[in-house]
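Summary for the steering committee. The consortium agreed at its last meeting that each partner would contribute one worked example illustrating the joint modelling workflow. Our contribution is presented below. We chose a case with several input lines so that the handling of multiple components could be demonstrated. No manual editing was applied between input and output; the record is shown as generated.
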Amino acid sequence: MTTTRHLSPARPAATGQRVTQARVVRSEWTKLRSVPSTAWSLLAAVALIVGFGALYCVLRVTRPPTGPEAVAAFDSTAVSLTGVQLAQLAIGVLGVLLVAGEYATGTIRVSLAAVPRRLPVLWGKAIVFALTTLVLCLPATLAAFLVGQSILSPEHLDISLRDPGVARAVVGSALLLSAVGILGLGLGALLRSTAGGVAGLFGLLFGPQLLSGLLPAAWSDKLYPYLPVPAGAAVANVQPDSAALAPWPGFGLFCLYTTVVLALAAWQLRRRDA
Amino acid sequence: MIEAHGLTKRYGDKTAVDGLSFTVRPGVVTGFLGPNGAGKSTTMRLILGLDAPTGGSVTVNGKPYQRLAAPLREVGALLDARSVHPGRSAYHHLLALAQTCGIGRSRVDEVIEAVGLGGVARRRAGGFSLGMGQRLGIAAALLGDPATVILDEPVNGLDTEGIRWIRSLLQGLAADGRTVFVSSHLMSEMALTAQHLIVIGRGRLIADTGMEEFVARAAPGVVRVRSTDPAGLAALLRSREAAVSQAGDGALAVSGLTTDQVGRLAGGAGFTLLELTAQQASLEEAFIDLTRDAVEFRAPTTGGAQP
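What follows is the complete predicted structure of the assembly.
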C-alpha cells in the first residue's frame, strides 16, 4: 500500500523554510499562471487594447476632422489608445476575481492556513498582478499607439512618440491599467464576493461622476478633476486640459484611492474570520 | 500536540464552540466525533487560526498557529476537499502551496504519488470526484511532512479501497510519532481507526477517553436470554435488580447481569433456557446514546420506527 513509506518520521520543523514575502510572491505567481481562464482574460485585455484602438483609428480616418479647429483638437494619442478604457474594465474585473474567486472556491482558507500572518498573501497577489498587467500592458499600449498612428498617417493626423507628452501618455496608460487592476483586487479582498467586488469597482469608476452631476454646476466643476476616473485619465492627456489635474498628480491621486481600498482590505483581512 | 483551553466561539448569539478544553497527544490517532453541527469544523478552524476564538485559546506544539514560522512544516490540514480552484491542476495547487515555505517540486511529486493521484495530477481539479478531492486535500496536508496532521471528515466520498487506505495511512502517521486529529460523524469509522476519542455535542465536550474505555462505559453489555417461561424468568431477574425488557421474539434483554449470573440464577430456580448470549451494544448505539441530547438537527421519528 502506498501509505507513509514516502514520508520520513516526524521531526521538528526545518529552519530556513519559513514563510517569507518572496516565497509567497512566487506562490501567487504560480496561482496566477496556472488558471487558464485568467491567462486568457489577460491576453484578451491586451488584444482589446490594440484591436479596439486600431478599429477606432480606422473609423476616424474614414470621417476625418474638417476645418483647422477640429484638426487642432484631434487627439491622435487618445484615439489610438481608446481600447485602454475597455481594457480597464476587463483588468479591474479580473483583479476582483483573483481574490473573490478564492473566497468562492474556499481556497482562501488553504492560502491563509499556509500563511497565517495573512497580509503577505494580499501583498503577494497585488505585487504579482501589478507586475503582470504592467508587463503585458506596456507593450500593448505601445503597439496600439504605433498601429494607430500608422493608420492615421495617410490623413496626416498622426503624432510622434517624441512629441511632448506622448510617451508619458503611452506609459501612463499602461500604469493606469495596472492600478485599476489593483483597485479591483483590493475591492475583491474587501468585499469577498465577485458580485460585490464588480459592483464596487463599477460604482467607484462611474458612480462619482453621476453623483457629482447632481451637485450645483459650480461645485461639480471644481470636484470633477478629483474623481477617480478623471484623475487617473489625466496621465494620458497630451493636449493641455484646464479642467483636469496635471498628468502625474492626477495619476498619483488615483493611486491614493487604490491605496486606501487596499489598506481597508488589509485591515479587514487581519481582523475578520476567514 | 494540540492543546485547547476553554475554547469558545460565538457567531452572533449562536455559540458554536462552548468552553472546550482538550489535549491531542502524539503517537495515536485521536478521533474527533460529534453529530453534524456539533462544532467540529469550527474547532478545527480555530486550531488553524482561520477563525479567532471569542474566548479561551488553542495552541499547536505550544504556540498559537499564527505564530508558527513555517506552518506547513508543523501542521498539515485538510478542511474541505472542495477547496481547490476548479481551473487549476492538482500539481499547481500543491506547488503554489509548497512555494509559500520553500518546499521543492520533488516533494510535490512525492505526495502526489503517495496519495495515488499520479495519473491525474496535471488535469483540472474541477473534474475531480469527491474522493479524488479528498486525496488531493490529504496530499496538501502531507506536503510539509508535518508533525501534526488535522483532517476534517477525510473519508467523505472515498470508496471502500480509499477508506482502507486512509485508515492505514492515519495509523502509519501515528506510529511515526505524529499527532493525528481526525474528525468524523461516523462512530463505526472511528472505531476502526482511532485509539483515543474526543466527543463533542453542541460545542461542548461530552467525552475525552480511550476508545476501549468509551466502549465499556457507554455501552454496557446486554444479555439475551430465551426460556420456556419468559414471564417467570423476568420476574426472577427483576428481583435481582436487573433491567429486563422484551426483545420481541419471546426473548428477554437483560442488563445489569452477566451471562454467568443469569445462567446460575435460572438454573438454581429450575428454568429451562433455550438461548443465553452476551450482546455488546454497537458502538454506533453507544455514540447515539451519548449524544442524544446534543443533536442539533433531527428528523421527526415515525411511530413504527420507534424501538
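Chain A touches chain B through 46 residues (CB under 8 Å). Residues 1-6, 8-13 of chain A have pLDDT under 50 and may be disordered.
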